[in-house]
Amino acid sequence: MPRTIAIGDIHGCAVALTRLLQELAPQKSDTIVGIGDYVDRGLDSNGVIETLVDLVSVCHLVPLIGNHELMMFTGLQNRQDFEFWVQHGGGQTLSSYGGKTENIPQHHMTFLNHCLKFYETDTHIFLHANYVPEIPLHQQPDEVIFWEHIKETVPGPHQSGKTVVVGHTPQSDGLVRNCGHLQIIDTFCYGDGWLTALDVDSGKIWQTNNAGDFRESMLGPPEPAA
Ligand SMILES: [Mn+2]
Domains in the chain, start-ordered, CATH in brackets? Predict the structure, then answer.
């Protein structure tokens, strides 16, 4: 059975990503959706991008854009945005390239340029941060889908009726937040948490961390509606 697996915010955590891919053992028929924020904060964004580039030939990889990829793009274009990016985790990304933007290989930029704003299947919508329930997927505002955190107040079900999978809002307890119609899979890997992969059909969860630990579980029951 082909699987559809979403991977949460990686943020330069190359060790955790490599371990996660070992456990997933992706096949040609599998779709792996990267929820965005591959770069910044963690130690090895360079290694993360290289690993993702290699994954393109292994399975059907669908990399989405996160706000950190956006900051990196604009940061590489002008001085003012460069400082903003460096202060928000871009400094670590630069260090992974030996401290020089010129060292970022063209194939890494090409990969980042091919990332998508969102992805959908018959049953699921994947995007980085958040959404407006009443607005069709193609009209969602950029400031919401790339930047807006999900706090106590959870958005209602999307009008499409599809389950939405997002990252961006770190779950410091290391657990996937399941709201039923919405699942949040950023489990705070760069901050001593876990990197999550979720099989959106079976509910199977694989998690790894920067110490190379691995654990697996199943998506829990949805939390009660507020
Ligand atoms: Mn983010």
Answer: 4-218 (3.60.21.10)
